[in-house]
Amino acid sequence: MSTEMQVFLLPDLGEGLTEAELVNWLVAVGDEIRVDQPIAEVETAKSMVEVPSPYAGIVAVLHGEAGQTLDVGKPLISVAPVGASVAVKPEPEPAEEKVPAAPAVAVAAETYRTEEKAGSGNVLIGYGTSGGGEARRTRPRKMSGGSAVAVTSEPDFAQLSLSRTRIPGKLSAVISPLVRKMARDHGVSLDAVPGSGESGLILRRDIEAAIGGATRETAPVEVPAVTQSSSGVQPSTGVQDARTGLTVASRTPVRGIRKAVAANMTRSRSEIPEATVWVDVDATALLEMRAELKKRDPHGAPGLLAFIARFVTAGLKKFPELNTRFVTAEDTAGGVMQEIIAFDGINLGFAAQTDRGLVVPSVRNAHLLNARELDTEIRRLTAVARDGKATPTELASGTFTLNNYGVFGVDGSAAIINYPEVAMLGVGRIIDKPWVVDGQLAVRKVTELTLAFDHRVCDGETAAGFLRYVADAIENPGTVLADL
């Protein structure tokens, strides 16, 4: 083991990400940690992850605080060798009245540890080698040379400084920084929150209850709807907007997934000369085929999106120009070099709406999967994305995106291409429409397909050929699937 202090720099947790927000520390100064043990929870622009330590030893310095945005490549944690002297900085003395040590303080301390382990309430991604042991405090012990390890032992909670507020008739305290941050982010005054813990300790559930009560009380007021989240919506301060003359209802920091979406869409619009083609499609035969499969196997029939995904991968094999990437770089002579990079395979992304925003997980090597296998993988990725467990690789490796916005009840969309891909296929809702079949007017199940594509990688003929192939596959699914 190294005898020198080792500094772990925040790694790039995705494709070229430059920063991450520190959500919560999973260790403290003085903890003994092992290699690959999760040390912090961070939110990147793509996902929530647990960061593992590449070093074993004693935590010496934590470079950052919860809620702070850290740059990739900057120090995250310093680790000293086992046996080194590590001093734990005491908490600053609070301005409020101190409370004498009592048995209830020990109970409060245990509650604090429980609250901290519970984290922010978001489900985070496992990152690195699995194996969940908790960080453990090390007590002074003798070394072979007879010297005692000076690493601070478990803190004396009898001396723990508590941030306290007074509620008439009882003592109330908040000792978890996560609880304080939650209250601050949602504009909840701790003076008005009765603590349900021992000796009036305010727990996370008390803040959540207060947030729910505030929402119910303000529900009748007609103000613009604002989603509150762990990113922190700052409540109204009565400031008047200079341009409109209206009172500012709230200010929401743009970060995490929303920040990534904003940057990605802006870059797509500014760099990609996109064009759009669309076509109405009779999906009656596809719906009838799936209904028949569902009769035979009620639980194993693939969903409609899986069939369309199968048609898309087959179409991309025939029109590979839409499964590429356009790259601009500087050549050795200092000039500009442009390339179209083709891929030996298809990673099919699909748009999934989650509580944290729109994400695009991708089915890797989708061209190798049949409709049933695609259905299984789409369902799995949708579940992990909504639970916040999708890995950066699953969220950032797509080569083409399929967007089923029909689930939101709309027919079409002028989609923005998911940069750095070069095309996106959108599927609208399937509805009854009058349709001419064999010269006769009939009511059919019709949907609209919309293809947005980068005009630098192909012309309209290629885009139209791909779109027509997928449309024909939907209208004659039995014939196409038999050929796949």
Describe it for me?
The protein is α+β, with helices and mostly antiparallel strands. The protein has two domains: 6-95 and 123-138 and 146-157, Beta Barrel (OB fold (Dihydrolipoamide Acetyltransferase, E2P)), CATH 2.40.50; 258-483, Chloramphenicol Acetyltransferase (2-Layer Sandwich). The chain has helices at residues 103-118, 177-185, 204-218, 256-271, 284-296, 304-318, 371-386, 392-395, 460-475, 477-483; strands spanning 6-9, 19-25, 31-33, 38-43, 48-52, 57-62, 69-71, 75-80, 136-137, 163-167, 170-174, 234-235, 250-251, 274-282, 324-330, 336-342, 348-350, 352-354, 357-359, 362-363, 400-403, 423-427, 431-437, 440-454. Strands 14, 17, 20, 21, 22, 23 and 24 form a seven-stranded mixed beta sheet that branches. β18 (352-354) and β19 form a beta hairpin. α6 crosses α7 (371-386). It is globular, with a radius of gyration of 28 Å. The termini are far apart.
Write the layout of secondary structure elements.
Blueprint: E1 6-9, E2 19-25, E3 31-33, E4 38-43, E5 48-52, E6 57-62, E7 69-71, E8 75-80, H1 103-118, E9 136-137, E10 163-167, E11 170-174, H2 177-185, H3 204-218, E12 234-235, E13 250-251, H4 256-271, E14 274-282, H5 284-296, H6 304-318, E15 324-330, E16 336-342, E17 348-350, E18 352-354, E19 357-359, E20 362-363, H7 371-386, H8 392-395, E21 400-403, E22 423-427, E23 431-437, E24 440-454, H9 460-475, H10 477-483
Organism: Arthrobacter bambusae
Family: Belongs to the 2-oxoacid dehydrogenase family.
Cofactor: (R)-lipoate
